[in-house]
Amino acid sequence: MDTVTEQKNLGNVIGGHKANIHNPNTSEEAKQHSKEVLEELGAETRSFAGSSGGPEVNIEGKNPGNVAGGYKASLHNPNVSEEAKERAQEKLEKLEQMGAQ
């Protein structure tokens, strides 16, 4: 992690880079840089399947109840795509299997 990142809130840094990747006004060079920074920080930039074939849920350092609440909110949000709702449901089920609810 570079000095600038260490001085800032890591969640904000990750959020900014994720937003940059999805911004249609950002150059491909800038998007690639953001992907590299996120990989270096160990943040996921898209959904990855875990070794069990299900969705990977990383709750390290997070409140499991808040994570579950976020997925539940996605399920009820009319602005969330059906594909995203399906992923949220899968991750919520994985959290329940982990006993993190």
TrEMBL record:
| Renumbered residue ranges of the record's region Disordered | 1-101
Q: Name one GO cellular component term.
A: cytoplasm
Locate the compositionally biased regions of type Basic and acidic residues. Answer: 28-38, 82-101
Pfam annotation, one family: Con-6
User: Where does this protein have compositionally biased stretches of type Polar residues?
Assistant: 1-10
What superkingdom does the record give? Eukaryota
The UniProt entry, under PANTHER family, shows: UPF0654 PROTEIN C11D3.01C-RELATED (PTHR36576:SF1)
Q: Please give the name of this protein.
A: Conidiation protein 6
- What species was this sequence derived from? Choiromyces venosus 120613-1
